[in-house]
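no rush on this but wanted to send it before i forget. what follows is a protein written twice so to speak, once as letters and once as C-alpha cells for the fold. mainly i need to know what kind of three dimensional shape the backbone takes. thanks a lot i owe you, the record is right below.
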Amino acid sequence: MTRYIDNVCARHRPDLINVNPLLAFCPGDPARELGGILYQSVDPIIKTHNVGFLGVHHTPKTNNRDTSDYGRHDHQYLAAGDARVANWPRAMIMIEEVRSPTYRFLLAKRGHRAGWTWEGERTTERYFRHHASEVRWVDAMPEDVKEAKRTDDYRTIVCVLPNPDQPPISRARLRDDAKTKLKIGKDKADSWLKLAIEDHLVDEVPDKSENNRKIVLFRLSKELEK
C-alpha cells in the first residue's frame, strides 16, 4: 500500500487520498500491524507530499455488545486493530445504523471543530438516511430522528414481547429480538426487562425446559388490557 500511495502522490499530486477499506491494505494481523502501517508508512508519505488521508475502516462485530451507553472515547476505540488505529487519525467519524433507514454520524474525535449544527444548536452528531434515487446521504426527517432515539426509553422493550393472550417467550428470544428490532445488547435488554417487570408492564410465566429445569418466560402484562 505504501509504495502505491507514494507513486500516486508523486504522479498526480492529489489533495486527498481515499483508502477504502483500510483493512484491504493490511497484509497481516490488523491487531498487530495496522497501527504500525499508519504511523511508520502512511504518515511519512502524506507529510512528504502534503496530502490528506481519508481511511474508511470497520469495527469488529458488535452484535453481542451493548454500545448504547458509549461515549465518544469508547467509539474511537471500537475501530478494528490496536489502539494506534484510534490514536493516529486527527479526526474520526463513526457511522452506525440506529433504526432503519436512519443512520447516526458521530464525530467521535475532535468533533467540536466541525461546526455541525442541528436545529440551531451546535452538535457532534447528525442523523442521515440514503437518498431515494441517488448515491448520497440526505438529512433524516425530524420524525425519523425521533424514532431513532426512541430506544432511550426502557418501556420500548414491550415492543418485542407477545400480547397477554399469546404464548410467552424465553429470555434468549427476547434478547435476540431486542438486538434485531431495537439495536440494543443483552445487558440493556435485561435491564429494561427488569424495569418493565417492576412497573407491571411484563408478566413472568413459570415453565420447565426440555430437561425439566425451572425457567421463566415473558409476555405483556394482563394489566395493560384493563
About this structure: The helical segments are 2-12, 30-49, 72-76, 84-87, 142-148, 171-182, 186-198. The chain has three domains: 1-70+80-85, 90-150, 153-225.
